[in-house]
Amino acid sequence: MIRQEFSRADPKRRTALDPKKRQFAPATFQNVEYKHRLNFYVTPPTADITLEQFEQWAIDRLRVLAEIEACSFRNKNLTETAAHMKPLLDKYLPLTSSTSNSAATQIERQKDHYSHFILRLAFASTEDLRRRFSRAETTLFRIRFQDNDSRERQKFVEGLNLDLEIVSDEERREYAEELRAAGGGFPKRIEEESYYKVDWEKVPELIEHRRVFLKGGKAYVPGREQLSMVIAEFTNKLDKALETTSRALPRLDEDDRLSPILTHLSQNFTTPDANYSSSSTSLPGADISARNIDTLSSSFPLCMQNLHRSLRRDAHLKHFGRLQYSLFLKGIGLNLEECLVFWRGAFNKITDDTFNKEYRYNVRHVYGDVGGDSNRRGNGYSPFSCQKILTEHPPGPGEAHGCPYRHFSIDNLTALLQQVGVKDHEVLKGVKEDKEKQKFHLACNRVFEYAHKQEIKKVRDDGTWGAAQLETIVHPNEYFKRSYLLKNLGKNPTDGGGDVKMED
Amino acid sequence: MSQAVSSNVVTDRDQNNMDNSQMDADGGMSETAGEPTTRTPALDQTMSSTRVPVDGKTSTEVTITPGMKLEVKLEDLFADEESDEEFPSSHNQDIMASSPPEASLSPVRVEVPSKFSDSDVMNQFYKRLFPWRYLFQWLNHSPTPTTDFGHREFAFTLQNDAYLRYQSFPTSDLLRKDVLRLMPSRFEIGPVYTTNPRDRKTLRKSSAFKPLAKELCFDIDLTDYDDIRTCCDKANICIKCWQFITMSIKVIDVALRDDFGFKHILWVYSGRRGAHAWVCDKKARQMDDQKRRAIAGYLEVVKGGAQGGKKVNVKRPLHPHVARSLEILKTHFQSDILQDQDPWETDAKYERLLELLPDRTLNDALRKKWSSSPGRASTAKWADIDALAKSGTSKNLDSKALLEAKQDILLEYTYPRLDIEVSKHLNHLLKSPFVVHPGTGRVCVPINPKKLREFDPLDVPTVTELLTDIDEWLPPAEDKSEGKPVADWEKTRLKPYIEHFRLFVATLMKDESDVKGKREREDAMEF
C-alpha cells in the first residue's frame, strides 16, 4: 500500500521547519492591511506604537467592554444593548464601513485591533477574567456584525473559510418538513433557504434552543443562522487564544513598562457582585440574628421572601434554594453560628443527626469555613446578584429558588405579591407589563418603590439621599439594605442613611 | 474529620503499594486455598484492618501489564476458561475445601438480612460478584491500563458515611483491593483528570488539575414526578410509576442515537427509584460543559418550579425531536397515565387539568359535568374535552389552541424529567453501575433498552438474594469437572445483567481500538 502524504513536509526539508531554529531567524513582520471592518483577531499586531497609545487605546476599549457588561447585568437584550452602546462606540471605538473610503478607516481598525490584543494580555491571567472578557468581546463582535451591511458581512464570512458543507437539493427536499418545523415554520417554501450541514458541536447555541434540525450528529443550519456559527467560531478561537496567552504571560514580566499598565487595567474591570463585601453591607445597630430573621424578612426582596415562606411552610428547601438563601443571609451580615442556628431551627422535621450529616457541611462551605484552599481563602462564595439568579439554574419541580418575577407564572406571581401586601392595582398591572417585556428588575424595583413610597419621598425631599443611592437595584442584598435603612430612618439619626454608598 | 480520613487513606495506600511489590517478589499468593477460610466473619475483620496477604492476589497481572505491547484478542479476554480470580468460583472450592462452603456462608446471609451494607455481605459481594474486570475495561477503553482509568476519580461512601473523594487506581486490581479494604457502602465515578487525582496537591499550579473527560450522564428520578404520580410518593415505587422511567428511556435513547449520533449508551437502574444513562462514545466523553449544556437544553421540555404554572411551553410547529417524542409518548399516555395513574380523579386534581386548558367557557362546562359525576375516570374526562368542544358549547372556541394545549398536557405528564445538573457538568460524580443501593439492597444493574418492557425494578436481585443464589446453585447434569469453572456471578440472577454489560463494553472497546489500531498501523508504515 502506498502511503499518501498530503500535509506532511518532505523529510529532508523538515529542519527548515524546526521551531527551535526558527526562533533565531529574523522576524518577518508584515504590516497588516485591514480589508474588513470586522476582525477575527487571529494575527497579533506587530507594528510599533507609543506607550501613551498603548494605554489610551486599552482604556477606551475597556470603557466599552465594561459598559457592555453593565448592560448584561441590567438584563438588557441585544437590541437594547446595541442602542445603548451606539454613542459610546462612536466615541471610543468607531469603525466606519469599507464603503466610506475615508482615510480614517485604517487607523480606526488598527486601534480596534491593537486594543483588543492589549486587553487580551491584561485579562488572560485568571479564569474568571478570561471568561468575562470573552463574553464581553463576543457581545461587541455580535453588535458590530449585525450592524454591518449585508454585502460586507458576506465578504467577511467568505474570508473566514469556515468550511461549511452545503446541503444538497435532494436532501433538502427529503427533510423539508423537519427543516421547516425546526425553523419555526420557516421558510414557507424549502427552496427559499439554503442550508449548511455542520457538526452539532459547532452550533451548541442553536442546539440548546432546538432551533435547528439534527440528524446523526449533524446540524442542518439555515443560512439566516449563519451569525450563530460565526459567533461560535469567534468565541471558540478567542477562548483558545486566551488560554495560550495565559500560559505565555509569565514570560512577559521582564518588561516593567507594560506589566503595571496591564495589572492596572485588569483591576479596573470588576463587577458589582464580585465586589460585594460584607463590610459594605454592614448595618450598624441592626439585630441580625437567627431569631430575628422572621422580622427582618419584611425587608427582603420577593425572591428571598418566597424562599423564606417556602422554608417556613415545608420546613425544607432544596439545594439551590438553600444556597441562594444562605448566601443572601450571609450577605446581610448573619454570621456562621447564627446561620447554622437558623437552618437547624427551620428544618424542624429532621433529627440533629440528619442535619449534621446532610446540611451542616453545606452551610459551612458557603461561609468558607470548610472546603478547598481557595474556598476558604475567599471566605466562601459571594451572595448571588440578580443577574446570576435570573440567568443560572432556573428552578425545577419542587424548587423555590430563582426570581419570582421571572420564574413564576403571572397568576402565581400576583398571588404571591398580594400575600406579601402589594395590593395596589396599578402596581400589579405594572409588574405584569414588566414581566411580559422581560424587565424583571424593573418589576422588582417597582414593588420596592411602592413598598417604600413615603420613605423615598422623605429622603428625596430632605435631600439626604442622592440620586446614586436611589438608582436601580440589581442585587438582592442591596434591596434589603436600602429597605432596612429606609424603614429605620428615624431610629438611627446619627447616620440616617448618609453613609449608604453604592459600590458599583 | 474527613480530612483526617483522607490523609490516612493516602498513607495506607502507599503501604498497600509496598505490600503489593513485596507480594510480587514472593510470586503472588495462591487464592483458591485461602478463599473458603476468609468467609468466616472473624477472619474478615482481621483482614480488613491488617491487610493480610490475601489482598495481594492477582498481583501477577499488575507486573505484566504496564508498558507491555501484546496482541490481545478481545475473545481471549472474555473467555471464561482462564482461572479468573476476579470472579472466584466456589466450584473449585467444592473440590478443594474439606467442608462444603454453604455451611460457612449461611450465617452471613440469614442473620443480617435487613442491613444490606453490612460489611460481611458487602465483602462477599465485592469479592465474588462485582464485575471488576468489565468495569475496568469499560472505563479504560483498552485491555492495557491507560490514564483513562488511572487518572479517573473514584469517590467512596464508607460505612460510617464519610465521603472520600479523589481516589484513583492504576489498575482494576488495586481498585478492587482498596474497595475490599475500605468496604464502601457505595462508590461513585467521576471524570478523568489531567493528572493523577491523588497527586493534585503536589502540583505547582492548582489550575493544572482539571477534568478532561467523562461520559455524558443523565439522571431520571421518580421524586421529580411526585406532583403527577398518584400511586406512590417519595422513595417508594411500583411497576405503575416505573413506567415513567420506561418512557423516559425510550425518548432520551432515541434522541441520543438518531439526533446526536451516539452509539454506546448504557442505561443503569439506580437501585431505588430511578435510572442513569452513561453515554460512552469518545466524542461524548470529551465534550466541554458548554456542549453538555447544549444537549441538556435540547432534551429539556418540562421546565419550571412549583409555582411556574404551565410547565411545557414548546414552540409551534413542533421541533422534530418534540414531535417524535410526542408520537412515542401517546400510547403511554393512554395506558400508563390515564388508566393506571388516573391523575384527575378528584375535584382538586381536575382543577389542575382545567388550569392548563385555554378556553374559559369550555372549562366551565367541563367543571359542571365532572362535579356532577364524582370519581369519573381520567380516561373519560380526557375524552370529554373533545366531546364537549365538538358539541359547540363554547361559541368562539380556538380548536388549534385547544389541540396545542392538549399536546402540552400530554408532554407535561409523560415527557422525561431530567435532573439536568448531572448532565451539564463534566466534573459531576455518578454512582457506579453494579454497586448495591444501601437502602434497598438492590444491585444497580444495567437496563437493556431493547427489553425495556420486561424490566421490573422490584425484580432486580438484592445482594443477599444473590449470595443465596450462589449457594443454591447446582452444577448442570452433564458435569464436566475439568471443563471451565463457572464464575460465581454466572450462578446467580446477576448473569444476564453482567452479560449485557460485557457485550456493551466489548463493542465499546472494539470501536475504540479500531481508531487506535489504524493510527498505530500508520505510524508503523513510516519506517
Automatic annotation (TrEMBL), chain A:
UniProt similarity note: Belongs to the eukaryotic-type primase large subunit family.
Spell out the InterPro entries in the cross-references. Answer: DNA_primase_C (IPR058560), DNA_primase_lsu_euk (IPR016558), DNA_primase_lsu_euk/arc (IPR007238)
Q: Which domain of life is it from?
A: Eukaryota
The organism that produces this protein has a lineage beginning with: Eukaryota, Fungi, Dikarya, Ascomycota, Pezizomycotina
What is one GO cellular-component annotation here?
nuclear envelope
Q: Which CDD domains match?
A: PriL_PriS_Eukaryotic (cd07322)
Molecular function GO labels:
4 iron, 4 sulfur cluster binding; DNA-directed RNA polymerase activity; metal ion binding; single-stranded DNA binding
Keyword tags: 4Fe-4S, DNA replication, DNA-binding, Iron, Iron-sulfur, Metal-binding, Primosome
Q: DNA primase large subunit C-terminal domain: which residues? A: 298-480
* Keyword 4Fe-4S carried by entry: yes
| Cofactor names | [4Fe-4S] cluster
**Does the UniProt entry include the keyword Transmembrane helix?**
no
Name its GO BP terms in alphabetical order.
DNA replication initiation; DNA replication, synthesis of primer; double-strand break repair
Q: What does this protein do?
A: DNA primase is the polymerase that synthesizes small RNA primers for the Okazaki fragments made during discontinuous DNA replication.
Q: Which residues bind [4Fe-4S] cluster?
A: C303, C386, C403, C444
User: In its UniProt entry, what is this protein called?
Assistant: DNA primase large subunit
Automatic annotation (TrEMBL), chain B:
Q: Name one GO cellular component term.
A: alpha DNA polymerase:primase complex
Q: Which UniProt keywords apply?
A: DNA replication, DNA-directed RNA polymerase, Metal-binding, Nucleotidyltransferase, Primosome, Transcription, Transferase
Here the segments flagged for biased composition (Polar residues) are 1-10, 35-59
Which Pfam families does the protein's record reference?
DNA_primase_S
Task: Show the InterPro entries listed in the entry.
Answer: DNA_primase_S (IPR002755), DNA_primase_ssu_euk/arc (IPR014052)
The EC number(s) attached to this protein equal 2.7.7.-
Where do the record's region annotations for Disordered lie?
Answer: 1-59, 80-106
UniProt keyword Nucleus present: no
Looking at its record, which EC class is this enzyme? transferase
Name the SUPFAM superfamilies on file: Prim-pol domain
The Gene Ontology terms for molecular function here are: DNA-directed RNA polymerase activity; metal ion binding
Superkingdom classification of source:
Eukaryota
Q: Which GO terms describe its biological process?
A: DNA replication, synthesis of primer
Q: Which NCBIfam families match?
A: primase_sml
Q: Provide the family line.
A: Belongs to the eukaryotic-type primase small subunit family.
Its recorded name reads: DNA primase
Organism (species): Glarea lozoyensis (strain ATCC 20868 / MF5171)
Q: Which lineage is the organism of this entry classified under, starting from the top rank?
A: Eukaryota, Fungi, Dikarya, Ascomycota, Pezizomycotina
